[in-house]
Amino acid sequence: MFWIPNQIEIIGALLRTLLTADHVLTFDGHSHQEVRDGAVLVEDGVIAYAGPVGDAPSADERIDLGESLLLPGLIDLDALADIDHLILDAWGTGQHARRLQWSAEYFDRRAPVFDAAERARIREIALVQLALHGITGYMPIASEVHSDWAETADELRAMAAFSRELGLRGFLGPSYRSGVNVVTAEGERGIRFDEGEGESGLDDAVRFFDELRALDDPLLTPVFLPCRIETLTPDLLAATAAAAKERGALVRLHALQGDFEREHILEVHGCTPLELIESVGLLNERLIVPHGVFLDVNPRVHGEDRGDLRRLVDAGVSVVHCPLTNARYGSELESFGRYREAGLNIALGTDSFPPDLVRGIDTGVSVAKVQNRSLAAGDLAGYVEAATLGGARALHRPDLGRISVGAQADLTAFRLDDVRMGALEDPLRTLILNGTARDACLTMVAGRVVMRDGVIEGIDLDAVRADTQLLFAKMRSAYTGRDHRNGTIDELFPPVFPIRDAIPREVS
Prior knowledge:
Layout: H1 7-12, E1 16-27, E2 32-43, E3 46-52, E4 61-64, E5 68-72, E6 74-80, H2 86-89, E7 102-103, H3 104-107, H4 116-132, E8 135-141, H5 153-166, E9 169-172, E10 179-183, E11 189-193, H6 195-215, E12 220-222, H7 234-247, E13 251-252, H8 259-269, H9 273-279, E14 287-290, H10 308-315, E15 318-321, H11 323-328, H12 336-341, E16 345-348, H13 357-372, H14 380-394, E17 411-415, H15 427-434, E18 440-445, E19 448-452, H16 461-477, H17 489-492
Parallel strand pairs: 1-4, 1-5, 6-8, 7-10, 8-9, 9-12, 13-14, 14-15, 15-16
Antiparallel strand pairs: 1-2, 2-3, 5-17, 10-11, 17-18, 18-19
Helix pairs in contact: 4-5, 4-16, 6-7, 13-14
């Protein structure tokens, strides 16, 4: 059962609310511009004025944000809706450097780690974290390592209900797949398939899509979210393309992201991942691709331009760049500037915990400088556009990602007055270099305050933290039964330094 807003909330949305801040990033028709001592008037969930505070119309209520930066709401198109496993497998040495992966033997006895109530709670916690970090619009990503296969429509129904109650803008659909990555007893990577699971998963996703669209809730948009391309058969990809075309739906497909993916598809299907995407009818303006790293320009592919970027641009595809997560796993775009100069639309995603696009932008800018050996490659403006306008373009939503009259009042503000922020120069440079998304002091969606100064009405954050630890511990302990390394918890996840129970006293 989906959650429907009550009449009190609908009436409340009609208030005229004036937000003021020392720095407001407004839209000039092409990109962003800063207004000092700025104001934004919100009426009936949309922006009715954006400009200097001295020229602002009257309002029923006022939110004074003071020494802060008010931005368009941040859009995360690869938002973690799970308990993160990256903290467990993003580093290591020797045998411990391998990514967490099912054993081939576990495939035949697979079982879910969490029950339905626990899975629902995991998603609630994840959405709360998005709001706390200034994310207003999101497209979720859930791990497959602790499920028995993929997601169900029932799980997404529960998530949609909580998302709407919380007040975030979600682009939702259950994930589905035909196969799962495994590691054999000999230590070789492979994929085990159950095509029936993929077919029923797509059927589930279609039912969810049609049901959510019929609800006609402005904060809930159905989309198709299949899993990684190498775990989907060509038939399932083609069926996804057909279902999406019939409905004019967006499709997000994780692809072009790794060596194994490319090698597997070349060996099994005789084409590159990009050629496979095109052959099944998915290469079009409704396709969103995280992470888009392994194109021909990547030194680990060909290291030269053989037309991959131009094919993506000509088709109108959007790429979701996840700079922080990519860096944690040792892989980045080659490069952000090159993709932008080619005309490719780039959005941003977090893809791991924390859902911190401020840290993500800082990482992306820093990596670009290193890659190009040039300070000029640190395109901060380009990254901020990707987190706002780029996400809106990928979603085909020109009413998002900008502060302008008529746009949705999806807004995010970050404090700049904390002593730990240091000296204030340009507000964006100060925030990205010195701050994190934990400095978010306002998350507003469609004119409704979701988070203010670290508080979300009706949410017990102490309970969120306690439940997070309990659920993480359960996920972590379950790896001994399914990971290909078949070790103990201490062997799978050794501490950074050895742990001593007690320090022996000196003998006098």
